[in-house]
Amino acid sequence: MTTPALTLHHNPKSRSAGARALLEALGVDYEVKLVDFAAGETRTPEFLALNPLGKLPTLVHGDAVITEQVAITIYLADRFPAAGLAPAFDDPQRGPYLRWLAFYGACFEPALMDHAFKREPIDPTTSPYRDYDTVIAALIAQLARADYLLGDTLTAADILWGIGLRWTTDFGIVPKDPVIMAYVDRVGAHPAVIRAGELDAAMLPQ
User: Fold this and answer.
1) Number of domains comprising the chain
2) Is residue 89 part of a domain?
3) CA dist 87 to 73, 77, 93, Å?
4) How far is it, in rounded angstroms, from Cα 67 to Cα 75?
5) Parallel, antiparallel, or unpaired: how do β-strands 6-10 and 58-61 relate?
6) By residue range, what is the domain housing residue 46?
7) For position 4, what pLDDT does the model report?
8) Mean pLDDT of 33-45
9) Buried (b) or exposed (e) across 172-188, using 16+ Cβ within 10 A?
10) CA proximity to 21, closest of 157, 169, 139, 125
């Protein structure tokens, strides 16, 4: 049976940078379709038929369309287990792995946007993520325990977090805490992350 083709709809200056790095780390064949923001290509009927929100990353694998960074991370790492980037279903680390992936989408990103746009915090008992400072403190505490989120071994969750933290510290939305920056550097030194960055640089106008 022929393996369905993987196509990443991608722009290097977007959240899809993490998905590309993960694809490189998995060592699988994939195609990239550059989405030009300036040309409005996230708002075309063709793209909106794939992702009604008009957002990146958007991954197509055969007949399956996967959106949302966390969903793409889980899907790819589980679909290609030979790379060893996700704990197996019966591994005790599977729960913590899923925890930190969910924390990224459910707590970190909402807290980040509220902080960046200077929105007043809501009552912590109502907020799905409590508050920005608590989210950042919880993250730093976890990263201080070991080289990676789950210990000494890099997983797909680290690729998502490492690249996300690189962007957000560059933009000044997340503090350049020494623990965070050391983690960003470790993830950034992974050969797949370096390779993805080089491929992305080649796509941008010189």
Assistant:
1) 2
2) no
3) 13, 9, 6
4) 10
5) antiparallel
6) 6-84+193-203
7) 67
8) 95
9) ebbeebeebeebbebbe
10) 157
